[in-house]
Please model this.
Amino acid sequence: MTAVGAARSVRGARRSTAGALAALPAFVALGLALLPWAATGSTVRSGFALAGAARATGLLGGAAGALASAVDGLPFVAGLAAAAAFLGHERVAASFSHLAVAVLLAASAAVFASGLGTSVGPWLAAICGLPLAGVAALGAARSTRMSRG
Model:
């Protein structure tokens, strides 16, 4: 292997690290939505189940209905973040990760404001939200720095 080939190989490994950093928060957000979020009656519901149950009541409209739909779209957003990272578009992957984290934080705030008995999900989402956004930004920043030099 030549010196140029070795340098490209190292740069490619760094780019894949930047992509992983950019896409990782979307998958963590997806995992956090799978945790128990609230107790309704005798049932403990995950973030996805809570959004589905709230939408099934027919009482959600406007922003609350859009938020419930956005929670259901988290797997799609995580997949888009992974695809963008795989294709070498770390800043796009970071944008999708930021979207997933924003949905997660908004859902967490909505659960806290609803008065439901909260479980571990919204608490972890609130605690991890800003650090996750920072990880996505770090992945995008590493990508920008590597493309310059």
Summary: The CA atoms of residues 16 and 85 lie 7 Å apart. Confidence is low (pLDDT under 50) at residues 3-13.
